[in-house]
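[Automated response] Your request has been received and processed.

Submitted sequence:
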Amino acid sequence: MMANSSAIWGRKDKPVTLERVERCLDRLAVIMDEDPAIAEELVPLFDLLEEEAARLRAEESSLQRARERARRSRMT
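Generated structure:
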């Protein structure tokens, strides 16, 4: 499991959100595509960002499932 995103990125002023990570992935993909000479060096960073995006998606999914369960529980 990954450590707290703020600790990894060393930033506390803006939260690491799925939207921000996705934008970074988009920008990095363009850089990698436009400059094949450095693309291979950037693969580990791309992989790290993809893992963080997957973790954030799973977190959002878990929160959504918990909210839906809470709603159902309140109805009964």
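Summary generated for your ticket: Residues 16-75 form one domain. The radius of gyration is 17 Å.
If you did not submit this request, please reply to this message.
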